[in-house]
# Entry
Amino acid sequence: MKAVGYNKSLPITDSESLIDIELPQPIAMGRDLLIKVKAIAVNPVDYKIRQRIAPNEGEHKVLGWDAVGEVVAMGETATEFELGDTVYYAGDLNRQGSNAEYQLVDERLVGRKPKSLTEDEAAALPLTTITAWELLFEHLAIQQQSPDAKQKSNEIILVIGAAGGVGSILIQIAKAITGATIIATASRESSQAWVKKLGADYVIDHTKPLQAQIEALEIDQVTHVASLNATSAYFDVYTELLAPFGKIAMIDDPSKPLDVMKMKPKSQSLHIEFMFARSMHKAADMDEQGKLLNRVADLIDQGYIQTTVGKNLGVINAEHLRTAHEELESGKSIGKIVLQGF
# Structure
């Protein structure tokens, strides 16, 4: 089968950093599904692994943890899907990724593709959807409500780095099924327009002091922070602007240690979201990821949530994936980068 991989960690500007390769087609066993990959998305985790983790000698590593495809074979104990089903998923960091014609994935991590989206539109969603959902509801413990409910809660969420992949879906989920007020940060005019379109109630500029901008909004105190990047740069500010018992949930890797004891006077809490935790450690409730993907598919098909595609770079090959990695490494992409077909 065709695939894109690498055999040594190189800068993305090197033509050998990602290469077109041929690999044997995997065989489904146990609860695995064999997926014929139709479309993929690219995430920061892809380039971070490429930069930091070299494959074993003589082997190729295949990246990619966002895919849409068709179930073409099932392991002997897989029961949740049928041959021919079209599904979407992020998968497992410990296994070969979706930058290949065929991929194995545990059925408990898989959801049915939203019917109203094309394959590339759906491919933009799984990893960021799982991350946003777990951050909002398992870490920050934001209250859920019916998407038809119009009542505002007293929860105020500050979303740092809101125009990226996770922020783009997190804003929509929060808008659709919570009563929280959403303050999004974005600095460029294009990214500010993007987060407003997705449902942010207020937009502030993260390149300017946050506290003064939030105070100028004349709303209640921030109760929750979704810190999607630069946590170490803003951490002290978070502890100052957050209400007592406020919660911070982060997804990035801080560049310096965080002084968590600054949270004690207000009895605040810090949470770390890593959406691969369930799959990597075979958690007893790893099927929660499949369930939430199905829930979000319903919300999409009901018109409450839209795709977060920012750009489609064309077919899945090494050249186009190198372009995707380079753009993500620049830190200036809006929405998700997707590719489709081999």
